[in-house]
Amino acid sequence: xxxxxxxxxxxxxxxxxxxxxxxxxxxxxxxxxxxxxxxxxxxxxxxxxxxxxxxxxxxxxxxxxxxxxxxxxxxxxxxxxxxxxxxxxxxxxxxxxxxxxxxxxxxxxxxxxxxxxxxxxxxxxxxxxxxxxxxxxxxxxxxxxxxxxxxxxxxxxxxxxxxxxxxxxxxxxxxxxxxxxxxxxxxxxxxxxxxxxxxxxxxxxxxxxxxxxxxxxxxxxxxxxxxxxxxxxxxxxxxxxxxxxxxxxxxxxxxxxxxxxxxxxxxxxxxxxxxxxxxxxxxxxxxxxxxxxxxxxxxxxxxxxxxxxxxxxxxxxxxxxxxxxxxxxxxxxxxxxxxxxxxxxxxxxxxxxxxxxxxxxxxxxxxxxxxxxxxxxxxxxxxxxxxxxxxxxxxxxxxxxxxxxxxxxxxxxxxxxxxxxxxxxxxxxxxxxxxxxxxxxxxxxxxxxxxxxxxxxxxxxxxxxxxxxxxxxxxxxxxxxxxxxxxxxxxxxxxxxxxxxxxxxxxxxxxxxxxxxxxxxxxxxxxxxxxxxxxxxxxxxxxxxxxxxxxxxxxxxxxxxxxxxxxxxxxxxxxxxxxxxxxxxxxxxxxxxxxxxxxxxxxxxxxxxxxxxxxxxxxxxxxxxxxxxxxxxxxxxxxxxxxxxxxxxxxxxxxxxxxxxxxxxxxxxxxxxxxxxxxxxxxxxxxxxxxxxxxxxxxxxxxxxxxxxxxxxxxxxxxxxxxxxxxxxxxxxxxxxxxxxxxxx
Length: 745
Fold this sequence. Notes:
By secondary structure, the chain is mainly α. The protein has helices spanning 2-19, 29-95, 97-114, 116-120, 122-135, 138-162, 167-176, 178-196, 198-204, 206-233, 244-261, 274-295, 307-328, 333-346, 373-406, 424-442, 444-478, 486-511, 523-554, 560-563, 568-583, 588-611, 620-644, 654-667, 674-684, 690-700, 705-717, 738-744. Helix 12 packs parallel to helix 14 and helix 16 runs parallel beside helix 18. Keywords: Acetylation, Cell projection, Cytoplasm, Exocytosis, Golgi apparatus, Protein transport, Transport. One of its GO terms (biological process) is exocyst localization.
């Protein structure tokens, strides 16, 4: 207490100190005292109230304990009285055993009297019940059947109570009512027949279906009542429980399964489209059945049956089983596509489970897959494997067909722009399109896989295509008269390469969301390279045709005949222009490069003629005349290739200027300036070699061996700076030895 008092005093001191921190607060001391007095009075009042409440509670508790003690004493006294009375009544109970037996016999006799009329009328009721079943009056028939079963079960129960071990009397009763079980079975058959045809019955006579459901409900109640009594008496009448509700659902389930399995009307042997027809019939039947079940059948069953949800589950399970069976068969590629499209898309679409008439009872998002992911994956693997084989076979066949066209005596067809083409690109990409459209119906992932497959096979196909075009070229070179339309079909092959490139880009743009999807970008550069190589070889083979025809005229260049007035270059220009009139049917990208290559080749052959030492000018007059002729011919060639390159923005002067530069060296009249002119030539064409310079100086015919050696050695000492855009041309020209030059001369 002392410690508490000290703490209270300390707290009070702190509070007073807090109140009297300024002088002006002394005036309020009386006010503070009154406020603290009020607080103290309030606290004391609350404490008194709390203590009073506790005292009242204790007083009440003591009163209740006292009452409880009195009650326990009274109960003790009453139990003692009951115990005494029970001991005295034991003998009385034993003396009433005869009365108990009399009551049991009276109960049995009362049951017999009660069922006496039914017992004597059993044969008649059996006949009436049989007639009612045959007439289809199922409710009335069931009512009479219930009366028969009630009489039988009542008699058997009373016999069981009196003497459960007396099997003879039980057998006698069971035998007398033996027809009852047969009637029950016959009625059940009628019920099952109605249930099997429930979707038809509900449209024609829904009351019949309602009657069946009512009968089943009655039997369910009887089953429950008998099972409840079994817990007390262990007695179960024969044929119970019937479990007709459970059998009803089994019948419906079997009916649904039969309905699904019975839709296959054709086989692969009789109809290639058998699976498509089968799946379409299933779709139509299932949709119609579920709509009827939702709108009509559900109204004939009690709500707690949830009959529509049950039927939906049955149909889904039956469909899943059927799809598993179909998936396990040896399906062809198109059949796998049909099956997967139906399972993955059609089933949940508005054409079937997503139909507006089934909403909201059917939620497609809650439906389980008809096929497991493993089965779908296995089917897709089989499909991809089969598709790979098919694409390889189709591409091979398409190429064989195209090869036969190359040998035709008629020109290939031209497109709307007049460019030659064959049907190969159209056939190939039509096939790719068809397979991609089919794959897109199944899933985006499969579509991408099929696109990758198509591009991979396209890569392999282009390698074979390249080999076949090479063989075509070699076959022609063995006999240039055959095939008759070699040039035209080679042009078509070149154009096909451009068509292939455009089609590949179009295909990827159409069927890929982005260029990195599934790593498809891997195939484009390599295919472009192969196609460009095929086109380049094709253009080269066409140029070979040109230069085979130009060979004789090219051999006249830089000869005495040429110097005296040969029209070789005129003929060359006419021949090239004539060929390029046919080459106009080559598509622009390749025609552009081909024109540039033709110019390079013509100029190269012209320069090769210069370097082959076919002529050595005898005097300045001949050098002047030869140089001027070279300049004129360079202008002719420049005009020709400008004309051929019109529309390409191609510089047709570069190569022809080389001829003019060579002519300037030949035209020079002052030998002392020869070094300067040659050094200018070397600076413009850094790939020119010593033997080229030697051959050029030899062609002039006025330079001594020492002068040649001096010019060459001097040029070797001075480094040359090559133009980064310069395209070498002299490195391809081989200067023959002196003996070969004499032979050529």
